[in-house]
Amino acid sequence: MRILLVEDDRTIASGLEYSLKQEDYETVLCHNVATAKDVINNQLEEIDLCLFDLSLPDGSGYELCELVKKQQDIPVIFLTAYDDEVNVVMGLEMGADDYITKPFRIRELLSRIKTVLRRYHRHTQPTSSIEIENIRINTLEGKVYKNGEEVLLTALEYRLFLIFANHVGQVLTRAQLLDRIWDVAGDFVNDNTLTVYIKRLREKLEDNPQQPTLIKTVRGLGYKVGE
């Protein structure tokens, strides 16, 4: 379980990181908005929960929460020194799942984390299907269907398309895709191999592979599935 922790007070951050590791949570620690945004834009698929300090030197936890929720539905908990209703309501309206006011006991924070994760697990567990246009992914079976007919994909083709499906409407660069896939033998997937797999996916899933409408090329940036 990996947690993105954003806290500018290095003493508090160090204590939280240590306590979370004692509970077998892996942490990605940032001290400002800029580095947190970099993690969110490039590693969010690997994050299970976010802990955001509300007040940061170069921005706020609000904008980080908004950025996360636009990309992926994972839980966000605010760490705030403000106990007034306006800040709490604003955070929750932006999609935050919970908040905890400083100073707090670490046991209370751990309890909040576990409660939020349980709630998300119950919420997401029944979701076993992703639909994009005429394509449906059954994530429990690891199968892909086009117009109701199963399309046979290799393990890497399936993993690559699932990455696209989990980032609908988001442009993914070739570097981001290469970062997230590997072949079943564990060998490095190079740029040319990625091109081949994109071509194969289009041949299997597109109505007209020469004019793709599902896996679209965004010139100079990368690829995008959906709007």
Residues in helix, %: 40-55%
* Percent of residues in β-strands: 15-25%
Radius of gyration: 20 Å
Q: Helix segment count?
A: 8
Report what the structure shows:
This protein is α/β, with parallel strands linked by helices. The protein contains eight helices and 14 strands. The protein has helices spanning 10-22, 33-43, 61-71, 85-93, 106-124, 155-165, 174-180, 191-205; strands spanning 2-6, 26-30, 49-53, 55-56, 59-60, 76-80, 98-101, 129-132, 135-138, 143-146, 149-151, 172-173, 215-218, 222-225. The strands form four sheets. Strands 2-1-3-6-7 form a five-stranded parallel sheet, sandwiched between helices. The protein has a four-stranded antiparallel sheet with strand order 8-9-10-11, with helices on one face. A hairpin with a 2-residue loop joins strand 4 (55-56) and strand 5. It is elongated. The mean pLDDT is 87.
